[in-house]
């Protein structure tokens, strides 16, 4: 893939200080639109996650999400395992007997086998993360002026894990449906771990911070626990909590879970449907793409801007592996096949969504890595130069791409993702149940909310430069619509 074959300027930035980075950025003469050069942080540096929490209602909302999101995961587990995947049936009973009785009757049981398995799995991923060789990549300048290095070896970790899983299954040592068969205990173990990790993140941020000046306290402990305090919590310089948690156990497990539910479908029904294969194929493209482009991931919101709290710690540990695989979980127990024309259409549309997703993200990454010295659709990239300050008062220069896909909309990279998500769900969603469509609904809400968060943050970071950008690129996600 082009993005990894090109000489990467992050390698050039490797071993450079923030000041050197600034100089490197300023030294390029590029085709640029005029821009306001004034800084957003004249007196203080407030960009990054909010350092205020809004009203107490806002904190209450965060508390609500921390309580309800785990219950929602469990509700889905119950719906799949006791109501054939029918949300209308499970909701009806929940309303009839009340949530307390409902969860009392159906709440998943703790399993020592699943808890042990989950612990071994987690430690195995830690060992791969620390032990496998990988390219050293550089992140982006933080508000406090830190430029961190990361070992990006996710692809090797994914390959080792999958070869081991498939190999052991092939020779009969491992039942490939093991995850599906222990799903109940895994839901509980992962949930508990997500909360423990959130607690660790909170206490570490308060008492043993890695980069003190990159912490944000909002005045609300609930908000801080939810959104995180530390930007880049680490143990030493080797173990990065955020890259590991966001990018390893959950995302590596994503495809493994799918494979396990395919095996489960076969064991239950004696055949494998094209719908479960298409859903898994689209997931696999997305996951493998993520690991091939792990260096790119270092310049996305998750790593550059979101702090490490419940949102990322619990979200990546439980929400991602359990809710993103709902389609294959559903199909394993409720198999149905797609007609050949429909299967072809869904696959092609899904792959088109993926290609759009990758091409758009690649354009932005290319523009950033070459500092605008590149061609987009055969023409020199159009760049808007913007400025911002770090906490030490240093002024830095950055660029916003405004040509190619990025001339169409400010978050056009979300459009391809939404098309791909829709097709992942369409492969499983023809049976009339709402459950397989959950991922699309979630992605719609997540990405629109992400646009709002990102726009607020970028306005604070770049000030008038961002206002100019919004005037130049008017649409948010879908040109002409939103
Ligand atoms: P981006 O990768 O688009 O990152 C946004 C940041 O990029 C901004 O904060 C800004 O950061 C910079 N930026 C914004 N506009 C421009 C521009 N025109 N030119 C150059 N830089 C710009 O967003 P996300 O991290 O949200 O998403 C990355 C991908 O991951 C998306 O395709 C999304 O669909 C996908 N995704 C998937 C999720 C899932 O759960 N499946 C969850 C979240 C995202 P700055 O200027 O400060 O560097």
From TrEMBL:
Membrane topology per the entry is: Multi-pass membrane protein
The pathway entry for this protein reads as: Steroid biosynthesis; cholesterol biosynthesis
Q: Which GO terms describe its molecular function?
A: 7-dehydrocholesterol reductase activity
Which residue ranges traverse the bilayer?
A: 56-81, 116-134, 155-174, 186-207, 268-288, 308-326, 338-357, 434-452
| Cellular localization per UniProt | Endoplasmic reticulum membrane
| Top enzyme class | oxidoreductase
Q: Which domain of life is it from?
A: Eukaryota
InterPro entries reported in the protein's UniProt record = ERG24_DHCR-like, Sterol_reductase_CS
Q: Which reaction does it catalyse?
A: 7-dehydrodesmosterol + NADPH + H(+) = desmosterol + NADP(+); cholesterol + NADP(+) = 7-dehydrocholesterol + NADPH + H(+)
Family assignment from sequence similarity: Belongs to the ERG4/ERG24 family.
Tell me what this protein is called.
7-dehydrocholesterol reductase
Native source species = Hymenoscyphus albidus
Lineage of the organism: Eukaryota, Fungi, Dikarya, Ascomycota, Pezizomycotina
């Amino acid at each position: 893939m082009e993005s990894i074959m090109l000489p990467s300027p992050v390698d050039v930035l490797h071993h450079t200080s923030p000041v050197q980075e600034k100089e490197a950025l300023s030294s390029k003469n590029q085709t640029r639109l005029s821009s306001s050069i004034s800084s957003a942080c004249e007196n203080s540096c407030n960009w990054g996650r909010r350092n205020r929490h809004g009203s107490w209602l806002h904190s209450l909302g965060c508390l609500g999400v921390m309580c309800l999101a785990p219950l929602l995961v469990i509700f889905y587990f119950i719906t799949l395992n006791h109501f054939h995947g029918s949300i209308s049936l499970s909701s009806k009973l929940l309303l009839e007997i009340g949530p307390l009785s409902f969860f009392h009757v159906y709440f998943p049981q703790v399993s020592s086998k699943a808890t042990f398995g989950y612990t071994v799995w987690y430690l195995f991923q830690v060992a791969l993360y620390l032990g496998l060789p990988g390219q050293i990549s550089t992140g982006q300048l933080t508000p406090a002026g830190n430029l961190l290095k990361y070992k990006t070896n996710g692809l090797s970790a994914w390959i080792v894990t999958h070869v081991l899983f498939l190999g052991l299954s092939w020779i009969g040592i491992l039942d490939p449906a093991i995850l599906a068969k222990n799903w109940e205990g895994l839901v509980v173990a992962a949930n508990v771990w997500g909360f423990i990790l959130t607690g660790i993140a909170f206490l570490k941020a308060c008492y043993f911070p890695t980069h003190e000046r990159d912490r944000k306290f909002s005045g609300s402990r609930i908000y801080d626990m939810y959104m995180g305090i530390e930007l880049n919590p680490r143990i030493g310089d080797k173990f990065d909590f955020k890259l590991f948690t966001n990018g390893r156990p959950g995302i590596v497990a994503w495809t493994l879970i799918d494979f396990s539910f395919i095996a489960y479908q076969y064991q239950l029904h004696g055949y494998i449907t094209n719908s479960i294969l298409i859903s898994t194929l689209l997931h696999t493209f997305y996951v493998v793409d993520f690991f091939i482009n792990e260096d790119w991931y270092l310049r996305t919101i998750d790593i550059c801007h979101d702090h490490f709290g419940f949102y990322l710690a619990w979200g990546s540990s439980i929400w991602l592996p359990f809710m993103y695989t709902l389609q294959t979980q559903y199909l394993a127990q409720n198999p149905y096949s797609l007609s050949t024309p429909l299967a072809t259409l869904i696959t092609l549309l899904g792959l088109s969504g993926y290609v759009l997703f990758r091409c758009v993200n690649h354009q932005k990454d290319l523009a950033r890595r070459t500092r605008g010295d590149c061609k987009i659709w055969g023409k020199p990239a159009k760049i808007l130069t913007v400025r911002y300050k770090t906490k030490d008062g240093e002024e830095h220069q950055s660029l916003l791409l405004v040509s190619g896909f990025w001339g169409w909309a400010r978050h056009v990279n979300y459009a391809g993702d939404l098309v791909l998500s829709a097709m992942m769900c369409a492969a499983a969603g023809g049976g009339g149940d709402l459950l397989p469509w959950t991922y699309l609904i979630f992605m719609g809400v997540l990405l629109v909310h992400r646009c709002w968060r990102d726009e607020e943050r970028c306005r604070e970071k770049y000030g008038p430069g961002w206002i100019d950008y919004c005037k130049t690129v008017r649409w948010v996600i879908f040109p002409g619509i939103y």
